Amino acid sequence: MAAKNEARVKFTAETTEFNQNIKESETKMAALRSELKLNSEQMKTSGVSIEGLEAKHEMLKQVLAESENKTKNLSDKLEAAKRIYGENSEEVLRLQSKLNNAAASQENIKRSIQDCTDAIDKQKKKKAERGIAEPIF
What pLDDT is recorded for position 135? Predict the structure, then answer.
């Protein structure tokens, strides 16, 4: 029992910075998602524009950067757990699951960025064909 408590204390001490970084990234991503939601609602109201899509693209890139930061910190925390608790411990399995979910989320963000890039290109092409800058509903 003492060894288990000692391991928990050591793990907590070694991962404090990772936890702070993860929490900070999650807070920033929540704020950015809120901005993305506002951007989406604005585009519903005023129509899809190149400027709106470019703003969305920029926000998505920021979300991706924070997601990558979170994933790196989770990975570092997982390595610390493996070292302290052992490869097959409950803590390692829990953190591995969190890391997998974070990586999957990161892939979704990358796909959203690509979709946004495609939409921007499509809007620019339509604008060039029409020679005007009107929103498309």
Answer: 55
Strand, coil or helix: 136: strand
**Residue-level pLDDT at 109:** 97
Please spell the DSSP secondary structure of 13-47, one letter per residue.
Answer: HHHHHHHHHHHHHHHHHHHHHHHHHHHHHHHHHH-
- What is the residue whose two structure tokens read 């997601």? 67
CB 82 within 8 A of CB 30: no
- pLDDT, one tens digit per residue, over 87-135 is 999 999 999 999 999 999 999 999 999 999 999 999 999 888 887 555 5
Q: 74, 109 in Cβ contact below 8 A?
A: no
**Residue 48 backbone dihedrals phi, psi, to 5 degrees:** -75, 125
Type of residue numbered 35: E
Beta bridge partners of 136: 48
d(CA 70, CA 7): 24
Q: Give the residue from 101, 30, 41 showing the smallest Cα distance to 71.
A: 101
Least Cα distance to 81 among 19, 6, 15 occurs for 15
